[in-house]
Specification:
Blueprint lengths: L2 H24 L10 H25 L4 H26 L4 H27 L6
Length: 128
């Protein structure tokens, strides 16, 4: 799978992922979202986009460094996300149950798509 195709698929995935929160906001259930939901959504989505892009770029340049690039990018993503969560939770009073639900929704869907893209690129070329 090419880098540009993977990025376009990810952007389409983000549009689909943003539909339920938009529906929640427009139907009057915005209380199910933390106050800083959209900055959190775009920050995590941007980090995932950087991870996917950098790993696919490294894979296209040198296959031997693929595993190291994946581990490094994932570590940087988790650390940046933890710092962002710390800042958001320190600035805003949030309900911890709603925050955890929002975090799980955003993080695990992004991680699932990231793993999907990476596994598609690791498939043996003869099986395609």
């Amino acid at each position: 799978m090419k880098v540009t195709r993977s990025i376009v698929l990810y952007l389409l995935f983000l549009v689909c992922l943003s539909v339920p929160p938009v529906i929640l906001q427009n139907t009057g259930h915005a209380d199910l979202m933390v106050p800083g939901f959209w900055p959190f959504f775009f920050f995590l989505s941007g980090l995932t986009l950087l991870v996917i892009g950098s790993i696919l770029f490294v894979q296209s340049k040198n296959q031997e460094y693929y595993a190291q690039a994946f581990l490094a990018a994932t570590t940087v993503k988790i650390l940046a996300l933890l710092i962002f969560i710390l800042v958001i939770s320190a600035k805003n009073k949030v309900d911890k149950h709603i925050f955890i639900a929002d975090f799980i929704y955003i993080y695990f869907f992004n991680m699932g798509f990231e793993v999907y893209i990476l596994l598609r690129n690791l498939r043996h070329k003869n099986l395609r």
